Amino acid sequence: MPPSLASPPPATLQSSAALGSPTGIASTYSAVFAPELFVLLCGLIALGYEWRRASRRSLAGLAARIGVLGVGWGVAFAVYQGLPRLLAAAPAWTTDATGSVGLGAGLLVIRGWWRRAGWGAVVPEYALVLVAVTVPHLVITPVWDVSSHVLYAVVPAGVLTLVDRRAAPLVVVALGMVVARPLAGAHTWGESIGGLALGVAALAVYVSVGGFDDPSRADTSSRRP
User: Fold this and answer.
1) The pTM of the whole model exceeds 0.85
2) pLDDT tens for each residue of 138-167
3) Which residue, among 183, 182, 141, 133, has the nearest Cα to 158 in the 3D structure?
4) Would you call 184 helix, strand, or coil by DSSP?
């Protein structure tokens, strides 16, 4: 039989079977909606929400906003990749911690730049809530490795849903992460639920201080195009 028609080797079959197993599906889900990707996706959605409501719009203005998100993501990625190299033989929990530090740094850049440009309130508040939740996460992580995948799925999805209920499907993605992390073997069920609890607590604090309960706060009439 020609090699091209031969049956796939056992290793290939095992790999395919693994991808179709609950663990394989959960691992893929975790990778597709990883914090650095999901936070960026939700940031783009927040940008789009502001953009639709802006009184002045231009392609140059849109490109500038996307560029700032890109710069912030670049800062986050650089910190996330760079810090572990300075922390040789660090404990396992530092991976989540450096991820939080990276996201926090990148989001601070985005928030500061956005506010300086006067582009709107949604993206800066989105960034602020995420930066705020990194503080308890960094404090808790050395003691209890709560899932950062869950935390940084619940908070972005929750903030956007509070801004506009049409973002509610993102909450389903976040809840899916609560199940995916233990099934992937990355966290215990307690650590995954802990990430959910921390995220819900952060959202509750956000709502208690006002959130976007007043539509005028979310008005994104820009000073600049």
Assistant:
1) no
2) 999 888 989 999 999 999 999 999 999 999
3) 133
4) coil
